[in-house]
Amino acid sequence: MKFDTPAGTNPIDKGRVIGIPHDRIDGAAKVTGSAPYAYERHDAAPNAAYGWIVGSAIAKGRIAAMDLRAAEAAPGVLGVVTHANAGKLGKGSMNTAPLLGGPQVDHYEQAVALVIADTLENARDAARLVRIDYTSESGKFDLAAERLNGVIPPEGFGGPADTKAGDFDAAFANAAVKVEQTYTTPDHSHAMMEPHATTAAWNGDKLTLWTANQMIAWGVGEVATTLNIPKENVRLVSPYIGGGFGAKLFLRADAILAALGAKQIGRPVKVAIARPQIPNNTTHRPATIQRIRLGADKAGVIDAIAHEVWSGDLPGGGAETAAQQTRLLYRGANRMTAHRLVTLNLPEGNAMRAPGEAVGLLALEVAMDELAEAAGVDPVELRIRNDVQYDPEAGPQRPFSSRKLVECLRAGADRFGWAKRNPKPGQVHDGRWLVGMGMAAAFRNNLVAKSGARMGVDAQGRVIVETDMTDIGTGSYTIIGQTAAEMLGVPLDHVTVRLGDSRFPESAGSGGQWGANSSTAGVYAAAMALRAKLAEKAGYPADQAQFEDGLVKLNNKSQTLAALAGRNGVWAEDSMDYGDLDKRYAQATFGAHFCEVGVDIDTAEVRIRRMGGAFAAGRILNPKSARSQVIGAMTMGAGAALMEALDVDTRFGFFVNHDMAEYLVPVHADIPEQDVLFIEELDDKSSPMKAKGVGELGICGAGAAVANAIYNATGIRLRDYPLTIDKLLKAQAA
Q1: How sure is the predictor about 158, in pLDDT bands with cuts at 50, 70 and 90?
Q2: pTM
Q3: How far apart are CA 519 and CA 684, in angstroms?
Q4: Radius of gyration of the chain (CA)
Q5: CA angle at residue 154 from 149 to 160, to 5 degrees?
Q6: Cys staple from 646: which of 187, 257, 293, 579, with CB 3.0 to 4.6 Å?
Q7: 555 torsion bin: left (phi>0), alpha (psi -120 to 50), beta (else)
């Protein structure tokens, strides 16, 4: 099915099931522990052995020698996989460095061996007996020190490296009000509950991986490429994933080493990347240095806007596209954005929830707060004055498909009580606390991707949906079930949803905030095909048949789904493909964050008192799960503002705080109150669902609202994230 013209009235608009705040249909299985995760597939591989990864002890160099004798002789050991016995391996295009290192070492903790034993404990203990001699080489580990060596990266996920419109330099030089500042964000680690994990089993030359992977079809291709086997010999199964945030978009070492280990010992093997290995072995959000310049008239209306970003990655890696929102969010005839990529020998930098915008808005929205103060304009009003209803780089010929930023700003401000804010910093006291309010705009591009599904009705009239779409805790099962129920006219509890298996039709997968909108659109396409088949069996014109109450109706005639399905059932398969609407129209999601903080007068301890936000993201398919997505993202934004940072040892090239004891993330006590308002919106140019993504929007701008609230409370402007106590105390002393 092709989506190349705006959506008209369709079955989704009835809103009998879609748009209702349903509980998650997979919730009971998860809270009772009956949902099987990758490492728990004892049913599929009851005789599995256990693998433990040995990571490199250097950041750059070569393996000179490996002594495996003590490890191989240890109790319970069944085998050891290294580059010397793994056979010739390829490298998928989505991994920057090989997933099994040796003899070359590309980064610290790169997997260089897998020790396999009869128990996890025996594998772990034997792994400590592997002796490796390295020839270490000097590397580059400091972004700030290497900044001037940055190069223009190739065009990638965020579009071209640089963009330009008008004459920024001249406009900025002549601006009545100017802001020019540099902001820094540190490296961030994924901290999902489930580690990267895989259970692998071979049946002849056929490989099955029960694995934690967000993008099943991508994973199949990458496994086939890495192991040099045909794609049709690879099956990935990933029905439940305990969080991903982008860390599981791509193949990781657990999958490849489990497959190699299972091949070597002739029985299934389980591999989980241990929590302290994850930051250095897998991927992270790269640190950035961001320079922002804003030029406006005396009323705060922007005429010149520039955003330059420096980030680092391994050779062959990509840049953190932190200026991409600046291309679309605010007006300004004279503008430029630029990204520069620095080669660093740190572990791979790659996608983490809202890549680009999440850290770009940490800088841009603080700069906007600074512009509001310089122009003497309320921060909400400043953003309203700089709203633009078209792509400001392309001009009016590329309007937004829908854009309700102003509505978000006004509704969010009113709901939060923004009018009570004292605009003068450091004036509001509550006992020992200085109290302040801050706000920031939220922006995340709306992306769509081709997605398919297979649907059927069985002899009992139940509807079955199959697609390789994944659920990383986002509620995919439920919104896909809601879509099927809406389209076939049955209650949600009459739908069975099967996800995360490469035997099912290829979906968009969970990533880029495109998963919900795209995967449900794929189900919509399959449902339309199934409706046509059922209507034909009933003898009704497909475009006139009505589906409701488990019946197919035409005027005063009706037949049950069960009767039409018959003993063998009726099945249909289709996918939603897209034309050029996303080229003709700028598509994005918008929002407004608000935050109130208290800062201890003596200790500089920061406490978030409440957070609120208003968001416009097309049709909200399930308000309950959407709210969960937004408050989770807001929490991540608060973590980025106040505590999250991977600390780099710039001597030896690794992240020092590589466990949950020292990599700090928010806990319940850090986030006392969160309020979410969804602005009513339908985007008929996004998909037949008239929806957009929402899972990443909530993190975009949240941290900047915290930073701006701290400034309002204290009068101290910090531009180096995270905004920790030591930095506040140092600024107080100065």
Answers
A1: confident
A2: 0.98
A3: 16
A4: 27
A5: 110
A6: 187
A7: left
